[in-house]
Fold this sequence. Notes:
Elements: H1 2-7, E1 10-14, E2 19-23, H2 31-54, H3 57-61, E3 64-72, E4 77-80, H4 82-95, E5 100-108, E6 112-120, E7 122-124, E8 127-129, E9 135-144, E10 147-156, H5 157-163, H6 168-186, H7 190-195, E11 197-205, E12 210-213, H8 215-228, E13 233-241, E14 249-259, E15 265-277, E16 280-288, H9 290-295
Parallel strand pairs: 3-10, 11-16
Antiparallel strand pairs: 1-2, 3-4, 5-6, 6-9, 7-8, 9-10, 10-13, 11-12, 13-14, 14-15, 15-16
Amino acid sequence: MRRIALLALLVVSVASCGEERVVTPRELASATEVERIAADSETIISAGVEAWNSGAAETIRAVYTDDIVHHDDTSGMHIVGIEDVAEMATTVMLFFPSYQNRVTDWYIGSEDILAVYEIWNLGLGGYEFTEDDPLVEVDLLETRGDRISYWTLFHGLDSLEKRSKATPERIEEARTILSSHGSAWSSGNPRIVGDLYTSNAIREDTLFGERLEGQEHIRSFAESFFAWYPGAQWNLRLPFGDGQGESPVTGGTYVISVSGPGGQSCEVHAAVLLKTSEDQIVHEALYYEPESLIRCGWAR
């Protein structure tokens, strides 16, 4: 029994004060709930892809609620209501009748979806996007039933550069914060993580029911994270975000290399949305590719 009790707890040293604190194992996400959210999300995403590929405004209308809100800081758009969204869709199809898109990756929270798309047969900002060189769009989708009720649009940073929709300074700022984020959460050092965030920052991980308020709480969580997943490495895949706006959002998708069940190497696919102020994170929201959570034992 003593051995079982010892295995149930992780003990880590706090080097700064020479004390030890006990870190309890992380409460895992429910695999049943992850699978349910994933199935619902896939249905909604697939319907959206098929509707926009059809080019038919009526088919596109069926994807959204009557009170749909579409927000895109980069293009300065804030559209409310299905009639105005349908009008926008009609205009897109008028100018780009061969418009096509596909979803490449998608991630879930407990109540919303983050989906990555490639779009082609489209010309924006004097740049022609083709199937071999597509526009990368990232959509944050809030849903009601089987329809989308709020749609916030971001772009891959490379696509923003091609569209000339972001200054070089904005692109560099976004790349720098994402690089710092990945390096900090790969460092094994909770102080480096804490320094990324403002004193009153909020970090939300709805799938795990975690809401951290304040730099010290985030630093303490990082200490636990490094005990749960020693040697974890966050590798940036896709940097994205707003190109313009008063408080542009920066986002990134990552592959987190960890030890999975049985000690085998495993990759958790995650995405973050970051709001920043003066090179520090004010708010962070996390999303996950569902199958990778179950495969790596983060959901059971």
